[in-house]
Specification:
Blueprint (H helix, E strand, L loop, with lengths): L6 E4 L3 E7 L2 E8 L1 H11 L4 E8 L2 H12 L7 E4 L6 E6 L5 E6 L19 E5 L9 H14 L2 E5 L10 H13 L3 E5 H8 L4 H9 L5 E5 L5 E5 L2 E5 L13 H15 L2
Parallel strand pairs: 1-4, 1-8, 2-6, 4-5, 8-9, 9-10, 10-11
Antiparallel strand pairs: 2-3, 6-7, 11-12, 12-13
Length: 265
């Protein structure tokens, strides 16, 4: 099926080295929005990724991986003199993971070109990348282009404990992202760090509804809440047996939602 609309992912790229029982078992390019856009590309939906990495073997592997999965790389930079980001992901007994990160603070480049957007395109962005000072000029440009073109802006908060020490400085930027988004999604874990609450109704009514009308709150294997001006809806998550890993579960959710918005017009 052909689609005239597209999904535009904006975010960091990082090489995830996965460990199980103390031994490395795989090394794959990743990143929150990166993972989502890979799934979108695999689903056959037109898409492109805005990001960067170092001009090294990891960076070249990342570009190849994007292309192999149907993701446009016209706005993805390989930067000379910069090291590609690396993460070590240690898989636990419950199929979750703990991480160690080795990366430099993200920052924009004067030579960056941005993709064109049109009405109905989906811009997918989030995580620390969407709120940090270094990437703010790029994010603001993308949000302005999305507003001018009436694109759909899907913001995945994805705020983790390792950035809680920056909460005071990042919270105003996060609220600004809420204001400029069509849909806000986050996990109960995210909001426990950000607002000290896991209650989707409280989070929506107190912190989000005045900025963005549509809110999705996920909680792992528990229920999903969809909050709208017309009501709040609860959906049970189906049980899944023999889970290989929960790493990137939220990224997969975002990809499915973005694809559905394209498919369903």
């Amino acid at each position: 099926m052909e689609h005239n609309r597209k999904v535009i992912g904006v975010g960091e790229s990082i090489l995830d080295i996965l460990f199980r029982d103390g031994q490395p078992v795989a090394a794959v390019p990743g990143g929150s929005s990166f993972n989502s856009i890979i799934s979108v590309g695999r689903a056959g939906v037109p898409c492109t990724f805005v990001g960067y990495t170092g001009e090294d073997s990891v960076g070249r592997q990342t570009v190849d991986f994007l292309k192999e999965n149907g993701v446009g790389t016209e706005h993805f930079q390989l930067r000379k003199g910069e090291k590609s980001a690396i993460s070590l992901a240690f898989l636990g007994e419950n199929k979750d993971a703990s991480y160690l990160f080795y990366k430099e603070p993200p920052h924009v480049s004067a030579s960056w070109t941005l993709p064109e957007m049109k009405r109905g395109d989906v811009m997918l962005f989030g995580s620390y990348y969407a709120a940090c000072t270094g990437m703010r000029p790029l994010i603001m440009q993308m949000l302005e282009k999305a507003a001018e073109s009436n694109a759909i802006v899907y913001y995945d908060l994805n705020f983790r404990k390792n950035h809680s020490n920056e909460l005071e400085s990042l919270q105003p930027v996060i609220l600004q992202n809420f204001r400029q988004s069509s849909i806000v999604r986050g996990s109960a874990d995210d909001f426990e760090v950000l607002f000290a609450s896991r209650d989707a109704r409280v989070i929506y009514n107190r912190y989000i509804s005045q900025y963005c009308p549509f809110f999705i709150c996920t909680a792992g294997a528990k229920a999903i809440f969809v909050c709208t001006p017309g009501g709040i809806y609860e959906f049970e998550a189906p049980s899944i047996e023999d889970v290989v890993s929960t790493v990137g579960a939220g990224d997969s959710f975002n990809a499915g939602f973005a694809c559905a918005m394209i498919w369903e017009n």
